[in-house]
Amino acid sequence: MRQLLRSTPVGRLLRRVRWALAASAEPVGVGRLSLRLARGVAETGVPGEWVVRLENHSRRSWPRSGPGAVALRHQWVGLTEKPAGPAVTTALPATLLPGDWADVPVAVTPPAAPGDYTLTWDVTAGGSPVADGPTESAAVHVAFARATDIDYHHVFRTADLETNSWWVVGAYHSREEYARSSAARRGMLVEQGLTPDSRVLDVGCGTGQMAMALEGYLSDRGAYYGTDIGREAVEFCRRTYRRPNFHFDVGGMTTVPFPTAAGPFDLAIFFSVFTHTFVDESALLLAECARLLGPRGAVIADVIVSPLVARGAGHRGEMRVNRDHFLRVAEAVGFRPKLIAVFPWAADAERLMLRLDRC
Ligand SMILES: C[S@@+](CC[C@H](N)C(=O)[O-])C[C@H]1O[C@@H](n2cnc3c(N)ncnc32)[C@H](O)[C@@H]1O
């Protein structure tokens, strides 16, 4: 009944008079913020509506405009506890009298880098944060916007691989750059123990960048097994790399198509593959390698790591992982990780080349 009376025009007027008499020494900060519509997941740069309830428990009006205007403020904070972008202020829909509340719809734009963030909310008065004012926060997983995702099946199906084999699998600007990268990767593998007699498993072989590098390098005692989820890419490799000890087959998202008897392999390589798979898929592919590698065998793989990511964030176009989480996952499926090299990638991410030894 009391509540009902409070919401009538007479009730509001009485409150206004009462609080106006009591008021001016009262701090703005007495109030409550609560999230009526929060979004636990979001996409980079794609705005979504949040609804925040603001309750004025103080004895003062909270003006919508003017020098002492009260406003809502939000800010993204990354896992590293650094703010990710500027604080954004939203005006109240109307002046809030003491005891009043309003549900404020706010268009919130997530940060540009995927990751695991906290979205913090508080109140400002006259443009400054209110000490001891109401605050609220929510955890938000920010993924890459889907429009930039990759469908490799579509990519391979629609490409002319005879002319575009070097272009479809990465950001290479020319066939020569693709060939240089292929030779450089072979050099790195030699440093990691590759010999002409090695048995190599290439998961996510694409259009054969490493088959090209190894075709003239491996002896007849060595062997190369390439697999990819892209049937067209595998068929292209079969047509192009025809040595009898070179084998290609279509794999599943989390399975390698070769029987255990095809091993044991000395090296399993994943170049630019875990940069496109979800962490649980990467774990299952590593478990397949544990099946196929010899006891002294190793995986060589690159991953994109970001301190803004708790586990993994991204999509098939680009997956970023938390470094420690990925290393723990690799250990859980039977590998001892070692860092080979670090490459710059983006403002908040770098690319690691890892060696994972059987343990
Ligand atoms: C960026 S390309 C790199 C190709 C090749 N490794 C290279 O460096 O040129 C990524 C490749 O991984 C393949 N791929 C993605 N997910 C895969 C999975 N779960 N198993 C096997 N191949 C996969 C894609 O079809 C694509 O050919």
TrEMBL record:
Pfam families named among the record's database cross-references: Methyltransf_25 (PF13649)
Entry keyword annotation includes Nucleus: no
InterPro entries: Ig-like_fold, Methyltransf_25, SAM-dependent_MTases_sf
Domain (Methyltransferase) ranges: 200-297
Keywords: Methyltransferase, S-adenosyl-L-methionine, Transferase
Gene3D superfamilies assigned: Immunoglobulins, Vaccinia Virus protein VP39
Superkingdom of the source species: Bacteria
Gene Ontology annotations of biological process type: methylation
Gene Ontology molecular-function annotations: methyltransferase activity
SUPFAM superfamilies: S-adenosyl-L-methionine-dependent methyltransferases
Residues annotated as signal peptide: none
PANTHER family, A to Z: METHYLTRANSFERASE, UBIQUINONE BIOSYNTHESIS O-METHYLTRANSFERASE, MITOCHONDRIAL
Name of this chain's protein: Methyltransferase domain-containing protein
Lineage, top ranks: Bacteria, Pseudomonadati, Planctomycetota, Planctomycetia, Gemmatales
